[in-house]
Amino acid sequence: NAGVMQNPRHLVRRRGQEARLRCSPMKGHSHVYWYRQLPEEGLKFMVYLQKENIIDESGMPKERFSAEFPKEGPSILRIQQVVRGDSAAYFCASSPPQLHVNYGYTFGSGTRLTVV
Amino acid sequence: QKEVEQDPGPLSVPEGAIVSLNCTYSNSAFQYFMWYRQYSRKGPELLMYTYSSGNKEDGRFTAQVDKSSKYISLFIRDSQPSDSATYLCAMKGKGGTSYGKLTFGQGTILTVHP
């Protein structure tokens, strides 16, 4: 079991470009969560997805950010027209469909986005 | 006011010391409480989870939840240099889309020196 896989590990984009961050959940996990970690801050929830369905996007900025989790393939977090303030570590987590009450999420190693 | 408050430290202790990490929270809907450990440049790793009030022990780690005071703690006994990391408390509500959202503290940086 390879765990939650995120790629790329590091991503550098110029202001105004698009950033695409990918997350492959653990085998058997159909729920995916995206979090953002700014320097010296805790993780902030962005979005919770199931296959082909956005469950909770209350933490997503209203503009430029979108997320999807298609039937096939990884989950994608997409940031359009990046700005310097988007520079952060973006973490993906996954969990199984049962959502056991005593189960914590498994996080990936993150994608570190730098906007120059 | 943040929903979850955590002293960022940094905290520096000698090897073998007992470490106490704490978080307070304001949202009474939180029912599930977790502690994550995060090494530099890595993702958070789940250490402990508890439901509602009470204690839970796992090896050198003990998690306590006091819902009446909205206060949770993590104790590390016989601390080791390998415990040096950032410790994040996290919590979530019960039911519906609340399952999907963890609210984190900002993390406490711990260094255990030999």
Describe this structure in words.
The complex is a heterodimer of chains A (116) and B (114). Chain A is mainly beta. In chain A, 0% of the residues lie in helices and 48% in strands. Chain A has no helices and 11 strands. In chain A, strands 2, 4, 5, 6, 9, 10 and 11 form a 7-stranded mixed beta sheet that branches. In chain A, a hairpin with a 5-residue loop joins strand 4 and strand 5. Chain A is globular. Chain A starts with a strand and ends with a strand. The model of chain A has no long low-confidence stretch (mean pLDDT 91). Chain B is mainly β and 114 residues long. Chain B has strands at 4-6, 11-14, 19-25, 32-38, 45-51, 54-58, 61-66, 71-76, 85-92, 103-104, 108-113. In chain B, the strands form 2 sheets. In chain B, strands 2, 4, 5, 9, 10 and 11 form a 6-stranded mixed beta sheet that branches. Chain B has a 5-stranded antiparallel beta sheet with strand order 1-3-8-7-6, with no helix packed on it. Chain B is globular and about 45 Å long. The mean pLDDT of chain B is 91. Chain A binds chain B through residues 4, 31, 33, 35, 40-45, 48, 55-56, 58-59, 91, 99, 101-110, 112, and chain B through 4, 6, 8, 32, 34, 36, 41-46, 49, 51, 88, 90, 94, 97, 99-107.
Helix content of chain B: under 10%
Order of helices and strands of chain A: EEEEEEEEEEE
Q: Give the assembly state of these chains.
A: heterodimer
Query: Mind telling me the C-alpha Rg of chain B?
Result: 14 Å
Q: What portion of the residues of chain B fall into strands of 2 or more residues?
A: over 45%
Q: Summarize model confidence as the mean pLDDT of chain B.
A: 91
- Provide the structure class of chain B: mainly beta
Quote the beta fraction of chain A. over 45%
Q: How many beta-strand runs of chain B?
A: 11
The global form of chain A is: globular
Please, how many helices of chain B?
0
> Would you tell me the structural class of the helices and strands of chain A?
mainly beta
C-alpha end-to-end distance of chain A? 36 Å
> End-to-end span of chain B in angstroms?
37 Å
User: Which spans of chain A of ≥5 residues are poorly predicted at pLDDT below 50?
Assistant: none
Uncertain parts of chain B: none
Largest beta sheet of chain A, briefly? 7 strands, mixed
